[in-house]
Amino acid sequence: MLENIDLTRKLEDKEFNKNMKVLGSELGELQRKAWELKIPIILVFEGWHACGIAEIINRFILPLDPRGYEYHAINDPAPTELLKPFIWRFWTKIPAWGRIAIFDRSWYSRAVMEKYSPEKARNEFEKYLHEINYFERQLADDGYLIIKFFLHIDKTYQKERFQKLMKYDIPLIVDGYEGYISCKKEDLDIVNKYEKYLPIIEHMLVKTEFSHAPWTIVEATDHNFASAKVVTTVMEAMKEQIEKVTRTPAQNTLRYLDNTSPKIPELTASVLEKVDLSKNLEAEEYKKAKKDLQYRLRELQYRLFRKKRPLILAFEGWDAAGKGGNIRRLVKELNPRLYKVVPVGVPNDLEKAHHYLWRFLEGIPKAGHITIYDRTWYGRVMVERIEKLCREEEWKRAYREINEFEEILVDSGTIILKFWLHIDPETQYKRFKSREDDPSRCWKITPEDWRNRSKWEEYEEAIDEMLRRTSTSYAPWTVVEANDKRYSRIKVLKTVVETLENELKN
Length: 506
Known about the structure:
Layout: H1 13-36, E1 41-47, H2 53-61, E2 69-73, H3 79-82, H4 88-91, E3 100-104, H5 107-115, H6 122-141, E4 145-152, H7 155-165, E5 171-174, E6 177-180, H8 194-207, E7 215-219, H9 223-245, H10 265-268, H11 283-306, E8 311-317, H12 323-331, E9 339-343, H13 349-352, E10 370-374, H14 383-386, H15 392-411, E11 415-422, H16 425-437, H17 447-453, H18 456-470, E12 477-481, H19 485-503
Parallel strand pairs: 1-3, 1-4, 2-3, 4-7, 8-10, 8-11, 9-10, 11-12
Antiparallel strand pairs: 5-6
């Protein structure tokens, strides 16, 4: 594919300067328009070493308002980033609505440098390309404009470029090495790796080429031509996205909705109606089981740390179902250095200005650590769905996005356990009234809780669908009978302990 690219194309200085004066003015205007329409833009620059990425990016950003973009030079991961899933460090850098993120190298370079080697099976590299495709499609579905460039040069030009640079003390970053190229002549060996990387790069380009995140191959032998092509490509994509955003709803075609499966009664029967809420546990039995399980969990926490396995415990449930009480019993004997509890509330303005999954990234545990989420990303398909805080197409799409998000975490070694704490309306009413009448706990009950209670049937339908569509083999839901708090707490503790003992037995 790349071998057929015409690398002789050029643009003379006079013509380049004349065109860029006009294009730069228009590019600045498009940036302001995208800001007004809150269109987030991601620009990815990849290419061969010594192809001139930095120079071409610099020419591109000169007409832009620096308050509206962020530049990210991607090199070797920091030690803390190596303790997180591969895609995590890129998720954290996505731009807010209306802003531009420019990636000088990206997840593609790192996938090749970190994840590909002859010693590793090809399917390992394929897994990371698959993960990247999830990442980009989720962002595109949420309104992000993604434009990817691969700056192409041939081996001969690359060698000439290295030799030219070696005459000067020009800083160069090669595979994470930062220094002066004249002090590191062995970097010329990169030229000898051209044929090795050519098929890998071509395979990567083919496997990650989609209409929502297309590649543009840029002939980069002449930097005038390359710069002009980058600018015009970005401008055309921005114009198209602006036109798309400003269409009326009647003119828009709905995006892909993952709701095309036929509704078969056996598959859509209620999950919750089969839950036996009469289950209970006597006080003595509870006390004995709790102590035993808590001490076993403490030992498992250290085994988890030694094996560098991250653990996510996700708690969802009806208001007053006992999430807080369950979490307190879980962490009673744990080392606080190795776990954290993340309470999830209403998103703030910064969180609202990003993809809805973005605000959960900070809590993703490092290798060997535990994160307990008190409410989670599932708010998208429950509260946000019922209260119409997002569009229908967004919450319907979220089932697939959440499954992919969790799959990525599990593929990186994370253990995920999800708990739905289930109670009946009568039990919830009693607990609400008990809270209202207790001065030490009245802060726990709000008018919002009573209002949500009036929509019980709507929430029940949403919860049923959530449990059906997001309980996977790699991240299953456990429905916890929570009318009896003692039974609920022991079931959660037992599920966590038994799962960890099975996962860590080898």
